[in-house]
Amino acid sequence: MITRNEQQNARRRAAEMIRAAGIRITAREADGIDVVDFGLSRLEKEGVQVLTLVQTERISVKVLVLFPGQTEPEHWHPPVGSDPGKEETVRVASGTMYFYLPGENTFKQGFLVSGKEHCYTVRHELVMRPGDQVTLAPGVKHWFQARDEGVVLYSFSTVARDVMDQFTDKEIVRTTRVVEK
Amino acid sequence: MITRNEQQNARRRAAEMIRAAGIRITAREADGIDVVDFGLSRLEKEGVQVLTLVQTERISVKVLVLFPGQTEPEHWHPPVGSDPGKEETVRVASGTMYFYLPGENTFKQGFLVSGKEHCYTVRHELVMRPGDQVTLAPGVKHWFQARDEGVVLYSFSTVARDVMDQFTDKEIVRTTRVVEK
Q1: Main-chain dihedrals φ then ψ at residue A118, nearest 5 degrees
Q2: Chain B residues close to A62, C-beta within 8 Å
Q3: B53 inside 8 A of chain A by CB
């Protein structure tokens, strides 16, 4: 749950970071940025801001923003019907992204969200800078984080069905509730 | 056919335009920009520069550059095997794009390539600026053009099989031949 004020402030801040990254977006797009708290009600710690540029039955293009210190919780994209699951390429536009996926534990530069250590199980670390990208096959667990400067990244994928995403943290609800006060 | 010199100059110029548009690319990506003359040997008039960012079996992300006065010839994306054909969203990153597709003839601000008027049959005009985008279903004929300032655009699509593209101009060969001098 977030307040309308939190939503509007996060939207405005995300739009500024997107534009500062050199990405030209329309006023309408800026107004439509999704502010996602994953039902955890502590947006600044675990959350993400999402601008959907393209969403068809076949592909999806999003710009994601993490504020400094914000973490997108560990999740994966399961098969849905005849779809083997979402394949996703993330590419950094500005800032530095600490990205985690399965493999040897090389966890070093990021941090684990306090009290939620058990919800961050994959710890192979990539430190990604503008122009760096990685492609994830369906089903691969991943989470990512920004530190001091925040990060703006692209997500290019096959069709996104966000509500079907699976999270390690069972307290997560993918739909964010916004309250007026 | 283009010379190695033409290829290298066009690559360099395209990389500069991409970076000036605020898009962060690696040195390796810049060196891999495709310079496409469509087999017509007059790159400055009919051609395109293509940086492929993502190419998997399911999706494709490219950055395209048209120099001032350059036109990408009319073409469409046909079905290939079980694929209904490439679905494509183009989005302008910088500059102005004159984009043409089927519909009422509203041709006004672009120009027809001299001597090739019959190869540009769809003339419904969109004048697109940064942040503007359009999604094309498979099979829809289209062509596009830059005038004074050139244009840098994104192409987000389902899997690209460029050699299967169909062109109105029967003289076109999709593979560009590069000669050493």
Answers
A1: -70, -10
A2: none
A3: yes
CA distance A176 to A130: 29
A20-59 pLDDT, tens digit each: 999 999 999 999 999 999 999 999 999 999 999 999 999 9
- Name which of A61, A87, A93 is nearest B156 (Cβ-Cβ): A61
Q: Which of B108, B147, B152, B159 is nearest to B132 (CA)?
A: B152
- Return d(Cα B105, Cα B68) in angstroms, integer: 24
Residues 6 or more apart whose CB falls under 8 angstroms from that of B137 comprise B87
Per DSSP, the residues of chain B read -EEHHHHHHHHHHHHHHHHHTT----HHHHHT-EEE-TTSS-TTTB-EEEEEEEE-SSEEEEEEEE-TT-EEEEEE---BTTB----EEEEEEEE-EEEEESSS----SS-PPTT-GGG----EEEEE-TT-EEEE-TT--EEEE--TT-EEEEEEEE---GGG-EESSTT--SSPPEE--
For residue A85, what are the CA distances in angstroms to A78, A100, A134, A142, B68? 5, 19, 17, 14, 41
Asked if B26 lies within 8 A of A157 by C-beta distance, the reply is: no
Q: Which of B24, B58, B89 faces A158 most closely, judged by CB atoms?
A: B58
* Overall pTM surpassing 0.90 (yes/no): yes
Mind listing the pLDDT tens digit for each residue in B151-170? 999 999 999 888 899 999 99
| Chain A interface disruption, residue of B29, B54, B59, most A CBs within 10 A | B59
**Predicted ipTM of the assembly:** 0.93
Q: B155 and chain A: CB distance < 8 Å anywhere? A: no
- Residue A98, both tokens: 């600490």
B56 at A interface, C-beta within 8 A: yes
SS3 A175: coil
With contact defined as beta carbons under 8 Å apart, do A92 and A133 qualify?
yes
Q: For the CA atoms of chain B, what is the radius of gyration? A: 15
Which residues, listed in sequence order, are joined to residue B145 by a DSSP beta bridge? B71, B98
CA separation for the pair B112, A123 (Å, rounded): 56
Among B92, B84, B93, B103, CA closest to B142:
B103
